[in-house]
Amino acid sequence: MTPGRIATLAAVALLALEPLLAPYIKVDVTIVSAALLFAIAAMSANLLLGYTGLPPFGNAAFFGLGSYGCALSIKYLHVHFVGAILFGLLGALLGALLIGPFLVRRRGIYFGLLSIAFGQVFYFIAYRLTDVTGGEDGMSVSRPYLVFPSFTMKETAFYYLSLAVFVLSILAFKLIVQSPFGRTLVAIRQNELRVRYLGLDSNRFVFAAILISALFGGLSGAMSAMLYGFIAPITSLNWTQSGDFVLATILGGAGTIWGPLIGSIIYVIGRDIISTITPYWQIFLGALFVACVLGFPRGILGTILARFGSAPVANDPEDPARTQSPAIAVEHHG
Amino acid sequence: MEHVAPELFNGLVLGAFYAIVAIGLSLIMNLTGTINMAHGSFMTLAGYFAFALIARGTNFWFALLVAPLLAVLVAIIVERTMIRPLYGRDPVYSLLLTFGLSLIAEEVFHIVWGANTLPFAPPAALGGTVALGFMNFPTYRLFIVAVLLLVFGLLALFLYRTRFGLRLRAAVQDSEMIAALGTNTQVLYTINFGLGILLAGIAGVLAVGLLGLNPTTGNTLLMPAFVTVIIGGMGSLYGCLVGGVLIGLATSLMTLYVPAASEVVMYILMAIVLTIRPRGLFGEEGLFG
Amino acid sequence: MSNPLIDRRTFVKGAGLGAAAIVAGVPAFIPRLGEAADAIKIGVLEPYTGTYAYPGENETIGIQMAIDAWNKRGGVLGRPIEIIKEDEESKPDVAAQKARKLVNQDKCVALIGTVSSGSSLSVQKASADMGVLFFASGGHTDDVTGKNCTWNTFRTCHSTWMEAHATAYTLAKKFGKRFYFITPDYAFGHALQTAFDDVIKQIGGTTVGYDLTPLGTTDFSSYLTKVPAAKPDVVVVLVQGDDYTNCMKQADSFGLLKKFPFGGPQVELEPLYGLPAAARTGYWGIEWSYSSDLALGKGNKAAHQFVADYFAHYLNSQKKPPTARECFGYVSIDRMLAGMAAAKSTDSVKVARAIEGEKFQSIFADGGYYRREDHQLMWPMWVAEIRPNGTPQDPNDLLDVIAKHDPDTIEQSVAEKAKICKMAYPS
Description:
The complex is a heterotrimer of chains A (334), B (289) and C (427). Helices cover 75% and strands 1% of the residues of chain A. Chain A has 15 helices and two strands. Chain A has helices at 3-25, 29-52, 59-77, 81-103, 108-128, 130-133, 155-177, 180-197, 202-228, 233-236, 239-252, 259-277, 281-295, 299-307, 327-332; strands at residues 139-140, 230-231. Mean pLDDT of chain A is 85; it is low at 320-334. Chain B has one domain (4-276): ABC transporter involved in vitamin B12 uptake, BtuC (Orthogonal Bundle), CATH 1.10.3470. Chain B has eleven helices and two strands. In chain B, helix 1 (4-32) crosses helix 9, helix 2 (39-55) packs parallel to helix 4 (91-113) and helix 9 packs parallel to helix 11. The N and C termini of chain B lie far apart (45 Å).
């Protein structure tokens, strides 16, 4: 039992006890569920940003496709919980397969802008298909039963479900980034040309990263749809939602495993608390963006890790090993 | 078919407006790689300044000249304190920071001027329409085209005929070299940012004659500005013009044939350009890799 | 470099947890000012940021006025009433989450609010899931009292069906039967269009032009250029809020306002004040007016008292008179509390049963009642001609009310609604 494992178990225990603590700390389970699911979407952004070095400003598309895949399958196919999740994942995956081949040919800010463009197209489509998706009015999502028809989930039960899904997600994330595949992604971020010279097809890895990122995003979207019971294009698919995921990632620490969770807790719960106190909460949110970028661009976790002199965090802006991806050279190789 | 001519003309004029909105953004992005998500906020700020100036008894022309300058003052402070530390870093950071600034700006506008839309009319001299034969066209929109041409002309003159413009263009090509040759690049960057915001401010004052003035006005114009810059190519004046006109025409013509797609067509064009030729129609290669 | 006493990763996780704990712990230390232990808490969900912030703030003023009025009379069931406000940002997921927070954490016994249709539907669902009373004060979509109707939700403002029917007949009678429509291409616009088409069929009118303006349209020039060629008798503008401001401003710049009559099913003072005087014109459906006896009811003491109270307390700070939004907020709370008093309880089922079907007098003419079958407030709707500069005494008084329509003539009948709305109380 390493100290790291103890801390992890302590974190999980604290989260597990939240429903009991809720009346005392005045943070109810719904918002913590929301934070946990948000963290999964932040992980999806983290994979691209922190590890592969690509700005994921279109990830709301995967989140939204997950939400709508889940919602539509519940409404029209009357699936139960597992089915709803699977359809959410399927929706996100299909989206990634559709736009991935275009995205994979670009790096840097062009990647980000192209993903925004695609995301906006999905947004307009969802908006336009009023008969199917409810358009601007959105659509309601009934919580399907878990295994048995009588077992529909109220808030606390859904919270534990979200916690379980989160734990599984972060375990999966850890496995992915600590595998040779994950290490290759980091290598691509640091110097893609070198990776290609070593004989690896970097585009294949990037494409796989996009697909995996889409799965995480879709999972988060599907679960969130069932949490809120209602989805609409403005929150599921709009590019500003992607910006929120990226911020949470950077706030917590891009390129770290636990960073997205920390960033998501601060962002989601902090925003909820401040918006109750003042209608001018957007000033604090904006100030958080500014402070984070100027003050600790490595994020909370990243800054702490760096101070303790551990290996350079994946997307460290001051990392000397980090160079801009020479996309021109990549282009010539097709 | 007689519908097409008015729509084409409309599209051209709309494109001119987008071009003015986009040119400032392009300048800022081109020199320092800063993605200014607060561009719309600066436009709105200039609009509010113009409103305040007119409320104090000045006229529209005075406001059109002075309000952008006031916005530039704010911009300089912002640049020196918050944008400058981000030069040389991944553009993601400037995007997030300026996005945060746009949130703060929206709330500040709300606190100072209220959430309601403020009535803002172009001056009477620019009201009314001009009979063009195939349609009656608002004088104000023609005025916008005139301002665009003037602004572009002056900008081209500045960039290509003055020594300062020369330095600016040189800095785009190679900042290190021009610094080594003795130019204070920090001052250059600040002036470039200020110039970009000046253009945004002019666009902003013109915009509130067409649209309502409220804290969220700038948000709607931000994305079309980006799309124009991407399509036309960063840093290219000509590209902004062409990009804007392209979007304007596409939007207008779509309203004739497939109205449902008229607002999304610019994103489709953007995706096409980014896929085939990411630097844009007239852009310089290599700035963003 | 690394501290041998504490493994860095442990420290990292500890620090992370510590930060999370602090964030989680902060709310416990935020004092809720003036919280009385036995107060009845009502949750207010309005947009306080974004494009609908202005109507959201105005609804809240109406809500506060009603709360103050009741508290002055000793509250309800001997207990004072308190509101807890949450910003739902016109985002349905935020609205749903805040609704749950207000009920589960803050122990609100009822909810009120929303302006945008998406948020109204979202809160309707969340509140129905929780079995809590919800007054949709400002969301107009038909579905709230249509296919989404639920026992716990009451809707105060008029439905889109009512709006269209109130104005269509007046416009046709005044100007003729050739209509040109500028319609927003989303659910609200489609619903208005469907309702208008219903009237056009009845009166034998024609739609000479029809534009669906997609989301995000700020420039209406492409649509406005088509209008003259179609030679309509009246141009019907269905877009709302900022879109309305932009469309009218641009219509003015094209010289269309002088050439063609403009009208539509809904206009509010909020966007009107944002227009320059030259663009303030036309005949529009309105949901209330502070200055007209036709709207307030001749000799209606409560109505005049309401307006007077507003003038006394809010006119200076708000710099504008009360709008329909204040009316929605006020009437909703007033009836909610009256329902609690009648039911002698805050239990949502009992209160709902006490409210539905009850006729009442309020701050508008003729009185009204929340229909038992769909919980839509049945109250009159008015048509007004715009006075660009108000009256000499009151430059803010832009609405010259010219007609009043009875609710039964403009809303779908109970029989028709029964096909769409199936309401069931919990057993």
